[in-house]
Amino acid sequence: MQNVTVVSHPLIQHKLTIMRDKQTSIAGFRVLLREIAHLLCYEVTRDLELELIPIETPMGPMDAPTIKGKKLVFASILRAGNGLLDGMLDLVPAARVAHIGIYRDHETLQPVEYYFKAPSELENRLIIVVDPMLATANSAIAAIDRLKRRGANNLRFLCLLAAPEGLEKFTRTHPDVPVFTAAIDSHLNEKGYIVPGLGDAGDRMYGTK
Ligand code: PRP
Ligand code: URA
């Protein structure tokens, strides 16, 4: 599929298998999601542009590479996005953060927005939207719509698991937004859950039902 990168690094796949296992504890699930976020962050930021700045090392002056442009934005789709966000911030602590509160109605599977707070100047920043699950893609599409209405024009979407149905809809609706995922699963079930998936990511992270 165009504009979709599957990050198939063995460490990610190994950790993802443990996350999928229904025996894995809440604490274990959270730690693994944070660790995988480090590895996915490495991949989604791989082509960031660098510029040289003059610095002084203890041995003398040099022009050293630094990430160019305004600070990145990580946009977390609540709640489960925060599990990826924490790991991303470990690697890019100066990133700005947008919080987008969206849940999907269990009957209609339509997204319901309840919160939105984003940094200024979205039009001048790279925005990486994070959510572990891309199922129908309704939540991700709504989040990207919202950010674009606020001026965002340089976006990427990062998830852990995607369903083929959701990926197809997402890339059709937002062909300008590259998707990074650790796996593409088989299908969605009749309730809109990813199969085989890992269940409800928010519930498994926070111990809710
Ligand atoms: C989950 C998940 C995504 C959404 C994916 O959130 O974290 O945001 O479902 O499904 P979709 O692609 O069909 O929209 P949920 O709605 O369960 O909210 P929560 O994180 O607050 O539990
Ligand atoms: N949201 C989840 O948390 N899990 C799914 O499988 C689908 C949507």
Structural features, described:
- Helix 1 runs antiparallel to helix 2 and helix 2 packs across helix 3.
- The chain starts with a strand and ends with a helix.
- It has 209 residues and is of the alpha/beta class.
- The protein is built from 6 helices and 14 strands.
- The chain has one domain: Rossmann fold, CATH 3.40.50.2020.
- It is 33% helix and 30% strand.
- A hairpin with a 6-residue loop joins strand 5 and strand 6 (111-117).
- It has a 7-stranded mixed β-sheet.
- It is globular.
- 35% of the residues are buried.
- The structure holds 1-O-pyrophosphono-5-O-phosphono-alpha-D-ribofuranose (PRP) and uracil.
Structural features:
Rossmann fold, 6 helices, globular, alpha/beta, 33% helix, seven-stranded mixed beta sheet, binds 1-O-pyrophosphono-5-O-phosphono-alpha-D-ribofuranose
Order of helices and strands: EHHEEEHEEEEHEEHEEEEH
Largest sheet: 7 strands, mixed
How many angstroms does the end-to-end distance come to?
Answer: 34 Å
Number of strands: 14
SSE-based structural type: alpha/beta
Total domain count: 1
CATH architecture: 3-Layer(aba) Sandwich
Q: Give the fraction of residues assigned to helices.
A: 25-40%
Sequence of strands across the biggest β-sheet? 1-11-9-7-4-5-6
% residues in beta strands: 25-35%
Number of helical regions: 6
**CATH top-level class:** Alpha Beta
List low-pLDDT spans: none
The whole-angstrom Rg is: 18 Å
- Average residue pLDDT: 97
Shape: globular
Task: Give the distinct bound molecules.
Answer: 1-O-pyrophosphono-5-O-phosphono-alpha-D-ribofuranose, uracil
What's the CATH topology label?
Rossmann fold
